Amino acid sequence: MPSTSGRPELAQAERQFVRSVLAGLLLLGVVAVAGPLLSYRGDVAGARAEFQTRMTREARVYAEALGLHLKLLQTELLRVSEGVGPDVKRELPTEDLQDLTTPRAGLFHAGVMVLDAQGKLRWSDPPLAEDSSQGGFATRPWFQQVLARQTPVVDAIAPGASTFVVAVPVVRAGVTTAVFAGLLDTNSALPGGRPLSSDLELLVLNASGDLFLPTAPPSWASVPRASGELREFIREGTRPPSLDAMPETFLTATPVPGTELHLLLAADETALLSGLRDRFLVQLLVLALLQVGTLVLFSIHWRRVYGLFREVENRAAQQEKMAALGSAASLIAHEVKNSLNGLKAATGLVSPEGDGGLVARTLHGQIDRLAHLATSLLNFGKPPVVRRVDVDLSRLVRDVVEGLRSLPEADEVRVDVEVPQDAAPMSCDPLLLTTALDNLVRNAMEATVAAKDLGRVAQPQVWVRARFDADAAVVTVEDNGGGPPEGAEGRLFEPFRTSKPKGIGLGLAMTRQALEHQGGQLTFERLPDGSRFLLHLPRAPRS
């Protein structure tokens, strides 16, 4: 028998197995999630690199377009400045002024002006007020640069102003006698002055770091320290700290050709990354559903496998138990049978007639019962060897029933036999089939007599029927003995389980064993007043 001390080790092994499987599933889940995560990070990095490359290229295109536009303005101012007289008086043709200052078609919507070498406003179109600040125009950086370099300059007209000034020198005999300047409204007169898109901002800074395009800069560029941060970004590429609240904003800078201006392009990556993020979340959701489904399927499969494992374990324990019991039973049955042979020989000397006849018949009946039990124990202790021969099923059934007429219960039971009238040949082991039928009919007779003794039936009756169904022989044994107790059907064919006070529980187990070794089967059906056992056996051996 299996040792009970092995149960804790078995339970521990089961828990360790479950932990190992769960750890494997967890590792599988981590690996499954790591794949999309790494793919997502790679996709984001690649998309960002491509996005940044595209933004840098677009910023360069915008800067070149702005540089070309400003170069055109400078060229036009230089051409018109030839009309400024030596006394810095207005000597410009009306047509030129119209080309420069016409509200819709002119190049400088905010007007043009001429300053002398001391920065004093000599005339303007339309008329402009003299700069009242300390030093006037003479102190402006752009004015000083034009005088010093004698080259055109583009800058804000004043620090923090949103008006551009394009100034060119008026040189006579190598001396700058005046400065001719055109004024531009940055919101309407320059490429990029209007918003490009909802997630793109274009900014223009002068050499001092003043942001004068656009007029209403983004919130992160409106903080007091933004000017210094932007200059730091232009000079060293350091990301402005004011952008920390917007980590997905990309910033690129490029100089405007022909000027000291710098163009900055700020782009929001949120729209770009939202699609990748949504796809990643969908992948994670699908993986989560797959993981949950895997766990559910594993739980179902594990319960089935565990049930099969326990069933196999129980069968192995039962087989070990039966093997031990079989060995002991064979030894005991062998000794009992030897003793019964001596008793049977002794009782044979007593005449069944006369005063001792009842005693002799009783002894014969009990000796036969004990001999049957001993034979059952001997047969149970060793596996049967199938020896097939051709037999007549009808005759075999009749012989079994006739052989049981000598039982003490035979006089009280009515046994009806229905078999084919003609010969019914089939191939089987007659000894095993006889043992199976003997057990079934014997159990039925004993059950019906017990039911009569308990007052459940008035006339014990057993029906034995044989027929051929397709390629199988079917023998039915029915009785009106009431059947086994409720709930006993599941363990009806287990060895050493019986509801009879005189049985040892081997009859049905041996019957099923005898049939299964020949390729047959034994089934049970409960009837309203008894039991029905159906014996199915192939007529010919199965290849």
From TrEMBL:
Annotated InterPro entries: HATPase_C_sf, HATPase_dom, His_kinase_dom, HisK_dim/P_dom, HisK_dim/P_sf, Sig_transdc_His_kin-like_C
Histidine kinase domain boundaries: 331-541
Enzyme Commission number: 2.7.13.3
PROSITE patterns named among the record's database cross-references: HIS_KIN (PS50109)
Reactions it catalyzes: ATP + protein L-histidine = ADP + protein N-phospho-L-histidine
One Pfam family it belongs to: HATPase_c
Keywords tagged on the record: ATP-binding, Kinase, Membrane, Nucleotide-binding, Phosphoprotein, Transferase, Transmembrane, Transmembrane helix, Two-component regulatory system
Transmembrane residue ranges: 21-40, 280-300
GO molecular function: ATP binding; phosphorelay sensor kinase activity
Domain of life: Bacteria
Protein name: histidine kinase
Native organism: Corallococcus terminator
